[in-house]
Amino acid sequence: xxxxxxxxxxxxxxxxxxxxxxxxxxxxxxxxxxxxxxxxxxxxxxxxxxxxxxxxxxxxxxxxxxxxxxxxxxxxxxxxxxxxxxxxxxxxxxxxxxxxxxxxxxxxxxxxxxxxxxxxxxxxxxxxxxxxxxxxxxxxxxxxxxxxxxxxxxxxxxxxxxxxxxxxxxxxxxxxxxxxxxxxxxxxxxxxxxxxxxxxxxxxxxxxxxxxxxxxxxxxxxxxxxxxxxxxxxxxxxxxxxxxxxxxxxxxxxxxxxxxxxxxxxxxxxxxxxxxxxxxxxxxxxxxxxxxxxxxxxxxxxxxxxxxxxxxxxxxxxxxxxxxxxxxxxx
Length: 331
Fold this sequence. Notes:
Blueprint: E1 2-4, H1 8-26, H2 28-34, H3 37-49, H4 57-75, H5 79-95, H6 101-123, H7 126-134, E2 139-142, E3 161-163, E4 166-170, H8 177-195, H9 203-225, H10 233-237, H11 239-242, H12 249-279, H13 290-303, H14 307-315, H15 320-327
Parallel strand pairs: 1-2, 2-4
Antiparallel strand pairs: 3-4
């Protein structure tokens, strides 16, 4: 289910934004073969941000028609790329009258959602599998970014958030093509970190540790995943451009700790304990925040350069609870 909380002006702007980005994404790989795709996207974003901002979608389409013509005239010199860009331009103008962004957005969400299910099904932990079967959060499109109303250290608007039983996808005039490109991976993060997990009160683990685990999963499992999910390589790599600039100190701490632990114990053990941790609620083993306690124990070993002891403890532990009991006395 998708709920739209946009003002009429924001809705018109978002419809144009999503229509143009949808058509560019469909032809992205072909364009990348015949032109400087980064320069094209930069010019594309500039024209999109300058486009008509009123509440009339038809007028906005007429304006973007003019701007796309300028893009074709000034940005592309290669004949094949020019031909493709003209085709995109025509598709935008011709498709505007019937454009419905909700199915396109739902498709991008479903890619991320499906990848998150693959992540937890491989982990095969009952808690996560139960949540996959029972938890379905609505998607809300909003014209206000959550980081504008919540205390945070983000320098830019957040492109996605999960709270109060819904996934919120805000829209801001500064958003360009890279945000649309990144939607599947951003949805993957929300489902891995916040939807298919029990209550976990640790941003360090949810937004840091699990972010690293998700990236590692995509890199190591990509060959078998690519046939079932329509992703292109730039979509897998956009987290560095979209999400990591918004890392807080705590989320960066979790990401680095996960990376360090994986370096010492290897992929297999790292994923095994990560899936354990992601299946535990915060109050596991009578802890107020078990995940923070676990990560702090790992951090103590890493900082004191006891990586070999971590590896030995991991190899002899059947689950993350046992690993925690083994490394806690050694701090």
